[in-house]
Design goal:
Layout: E1 2-7, H1 17-28, E2 33-35, E3 39-42, E4 55-62, E5 65-74, E6 77-84, H2 92-106, E7 114-118, H3 125-132, H4 137-144, E8 148-151, H5 157-166, E9 179-185, H6 199-206, E10 211-212, E11 231-237, H7 240-246, E12 257-263, E13 271-272, E14 281-289, E15 294-295, E16 301-307, E17 310-316, H8 323-328, E18 335-343, E19 346-356, E20 360-362, E21 377-378, E22 385-386, E23 393-394, E24 400-402, E25 409-411
Parallel strand pairs: 2-6, 3-12, 13-14, 17-19
Antiparallel strand pairs: 1-4, 1-7, 2-4, 3-4, 5-6, 5-12, 7-8, 9-11, 9-12, 10-11, 14-16, 14-18, 15-16, 16-17, 18-19, 19-25, 20-24, 21-22, 22-23
Helix pairs in contact: 1-2, 3-5
The structure holds zinc ion (ZN).
Zinc ion (ZN) binds near residues 374 and 392.
């Protein structure tokens, strides 16, 4: 069995690494079986040179054995993934040449593709380096030892290709170590034209069991891209079978091909638990609100947040929609877990969990004068209240407790504002998940 890693074939103006991988599967199908499902691995969303989603792909080819499931449909017929591959001697260099020919034909001119063909996969530590940080040259050189590989046009994609090969969906024992995405692809002559996918059909597949990320809370489709890439739609879910069984409802435009991907999307793998010494990174931190939320021009919201390592500013920007109303309800002392990318001392919120709410108080109405019944007024700081007509003084009334307008639990921005790696709030398991939040940030 040979593992094939591919990255950096696309660019901001279109193209898509999953499409290149699909073409590789198509070209190799007469000679090789696909072993295990194709994998789409999202890497550090904070690196500067990323294309839209910073996704790399990993495939495995060989002579298939054991159980097989359908993972795709191409014009030439169905694609099956086999569960096992008995040991066979395969020529890695020859396979690399065949893959490179496809990459050269399909990659965008501005891309820096990297392709790796190897019998062994790099250690999993390389994946964690690539999803949370930046892979150093020495690490990459070690990972490439003994493999057949090639970098084109600079070959920046070699690092992503190696990280994709290093990802293991099986490790950890942590819940939701992987999810699935069924990608539908368009005929080549439709690329760049508007996609004809109705909101009604998106609503229909959003009801398919264990799917997520189909729609925004306002009902608008979030699973249909707007870029000129070959992808028609992406249907995400926690299990593969409901996706392949349920996608037919999407339309009226039908995919020319489709392929089911096992992914690290919605795993939160990009979050470190400590702040980076330098550069951008994504973190999850526990702490408390240290100052009242402020609204800035443009509709952005900010608040101070104190955590074990110090204090930073948390931000919810305008595209996060109603999520900002959650931020508006926060009060100093509220205990939170915040998740997002940190840059220059500002954490851009990707989601937050209200762990515990500080007591909220309200100043009661000014008391009436006990002598003449007139409304009293504050006599100044710590000086109580005074009746102007008769001069009677009364003590300041004690503040009244107010029920918070928030419940403990997870909150996040709409799907369309969410990064691929972020697990949606409604998939976060919490002790308080049975409580109904007052703001509807849930979607399907
Ligand atoms: Zn009075």
């Amino acid at each position: 069995m040979l593992h094939v890693g591919i990255d950096d074939t696309d660019s901001l103006d279109g193209g898509c690494t999953t499409w290149v991988a699909l073409r590789v599967i198509e070209e190799l199908q007469p000679d090789f079986d696909l072993i295990g499902p194709p994998r789409l691995v999202r890497l550090n969303p904070d690196v500067l040179w990323k294309t839209r989603g910073n996704g790399a792909v990993a495939l495995a080819f060989g002579r298939g054995a054991g159980e097989q499931i359908q993972v795709g449909e191409l014009p030439g017929g169905p694609v099956f993934a086999h569960a096992e591959a008995p040991p066979t001697a395969l020529d890695a260099e020859a396979l690399l040449e065949r893959v490179l020919a496809i990459v050269r034909a399909e990659a965008r001119p501005s891309a820096q593709p990297g392709v790796i063909v190897s019998e062994a996969r790099p250690p999993e530590g390389l994946y964690w380096q690539g999803v949370r940080g930046i892979v150093r040259d020495t690490q990459l050189r070690e990972a490439l030892e003994g493999s057949a590989h090639a970098g084109l046009n600079g070959g920046r994609g070699l690092a992503g290709a190696a990280c994709a090969l290093a990802w293991s969906p099986r490790s950890g024992g942590v819940a939701l170590r992987y999810t699935w995405e069924l990608l539908g692809y368009r005929e080549r002559d439709r690329w760049g034209t508007p996609r004809k996918i109705s909101a009604e059909s998106v609503t229909a597949v959003a009801a398919v069991e264990k799917t997520f990320g189909c729609r925004d809370p306002d009902g608008s489709p979030a699973m249909v891209p707007h870029s000129p890439c070959p992808v028609l739609w992406g249907l995400r879910g926690l299990e593969p079978a409901p996706l392949t069984a349920g996608f037919a409802a999407l339309g009226p435009e039908q995919p020319e091909r489709w392929l089911l991907w096992q992914t690290n999307q919605a795993t939160d793998d990009h979050y470190a638990t400590t702040l980076p010494a330098e550069g951008g990174a994504s973190v999850r931190l526990t702490g408390a609100v240290a100052g009242p939320p402020r609204s800035h021009r443009g509709g952005h919201r900010f608040f101070r947040f104190a955590h074990e390592g110090g204090e930073l500013e948390c931000a919810a920007f305008e595209p996060s929609g109603d999520f900002r109303h959650v931020v508006d309800q926060l009060a100093p002392g509220d205990e939170l877990e915040v998740c997002g990318s940190v840059k220059a001392g500002v954490l851009k919120l990707e989601k937050l969990r209200v762990i515990a709410l500080a007591p909220r108080q309200r100043k009661p109405p000014n008391p009436a004068c006990p002598e003449c019944g007139a409304r009293t007024h504050s006599a100044g700081r710590d000086a109580g209240y005074r009746c102007r007509p008769c001069g009677t003084r009364v003590p300041a009334p004690t503040p009244e407790p107010v029920a918070p307008a928030l419940a403990p639990g997870w909150y996040d921005p709409p799907t369309s504002a969410r990064r691929h790696l972020v697990r949606p709030a409604r998939l976060m398991e919490t002790a308080s998940s049975s409580r109904r939040p007052i703001f509807k940030t849930e979607e399907r």
